[in-house]
Design goal:
Oligomer: single chain
CATH class: Alpha Beta
Structural class: alpha/beta
Helix content: 25-40%
Distance between the termini: 25 Å
Bound molecules: adenosine-5'-triphosphate, magnesium ion
Strand order of the largest sheet: 5-6-7-3-8-9
Largest sheet: 6 strands, mixed
Low-confidence stretches: 229-240, 251-261
Number of domains: 1
Order of helices and strands: EEEHEEHHHHEHEHEEHH
CATH architecture: 3-Layer(aba) Sandwich
CATH topology: Rossmann fold
Mean pLDDT: 81
Strand content: 15-25%
Number of helices: 9
Radius of gyration: 19 Å
């Protein structure tokens, strides 16, 4: 069973059509990279999967259900998670924002539950566990503004992991992070991908080639390819533009029935 199944999906903002007849399946433990030009509709697609944007035409099923019924199974790292670095909030507080389970605070006294004061040991344990998964547990009590861009992005991933998701959606998680930082984040995603399905929007083509098991190109319509690691990976330092990558992938047989190439 596909864990995400998108069929004949079209979407418009007012009269501007942004997505047209998208068909896409994501299987368990896929590492799907979504690439495409600015304004191509990538973030819009993620927001439809999340149920933030309402489906107008076509269908999306997550674990055979509507997106809104599956909120707790999806972790989301949005695009441009710029944080006001002067805002006095600690790393642990940022991660706690990712909680969607209401059962974790059962061990708090009633007045703390009602007024939502403090965190229960269960909640804290869960948040610290998420921080440990991204190697940031030592930073729990640091101010978020004192972290580097790459460290902050790890915290945002920890926040998404806090709800114990089965699918992780990341919208350009490494924009404005240097090459080493990008590599670290993708290594982390590779590790998480052993148990979680990863869908990442990215412009880092050379990195994507190394980590993704599948690539989808979206520019209003969708072109979808399976990437073969062994034949497609080139030198680590080599950078591709999207056109070159599409040309390269275009030589391969597309395995998706809805492919337009
Ligand atoms: N909330 C909105 N209201 C109206 N139009 C929108 C809205 N969000 C996005 N758009 C428009 O929809 C189109 C697709 O935007 P989207 O953010 O999905 O693109 P994208 O592929 O994620 O681009 P980028 O690579 O720049 O992040 C763009 O033309 C954008 O201006
Ligand atoms: Mg976007």
């Amino acid at each position: 069973m596909s864990i995400v199944k998108i069929e004949n999906l079209s979407f418009s903002y007012d009269k501007q059509q942004v997505l047209e007849n998208i068909n896409l399946s994501v299987e368990d433990r896929d590492f799907l990279a979504i690439i495409g030009p600015n304004g191509g509709g990538k973030s819009t697609l993620l927001k439809l999967i999340l149920g933030i944007n309402k489906i107008q035409r076509g269908d999306i099923k997550i674990f055979d259900n509507t997106p809104s019924k599956n909120l707790s199974s999806i972790g989301y790292v949005p695009q441009n998670t710029n944080i006001n670095t002067n805002f006095p909030i600690k790393v642990i507080d940022v991660v706690m924002m990712g909680h969607v389970s209401h059962n974790l605070n059962q061990d708090l006294p009633w007045w703390k539950k009602i007024f939502k004061i403090g965190y229960s040991p269960n909640e804290l344990g869960c948040a610290m566990g998420s921080l440990a998964k991204v190697g940031m547990e030592k930073f729990a009590n640091k101010k978020i503004g004192s972290l580097s861009g790459g460290q902050r992005q790890r915290v945002m991933i920890a926040r998404a992991l806090c709800a114990n998701p089965k699918i992780l959606l990341l919208d350009e998680p490494t924009s404005s992070i240097d090459v080493d930082g990008q590599k670290q984040i993708y290594e982390l995603l590779k590790l998480l991908n052993k148990t979680i399905t990863v869908i990442v929007v990215s412009h880092d083509i050379s990195v994507i080639l190394k980590y993704a098991s599948k690539v989808a190109h979206i520019n209003k319509v969708l072109t979808f390819h399976n990437v073969d690691f062994n034949t497609n990976i080139k030198n680590d330092n080599e950078h591709f533009c999207e056109v070159e990558m599409l040309q390269m992938l275009g030589n391969k047989t597309c395995e998706y029935k809805g492919c337009l190439c």
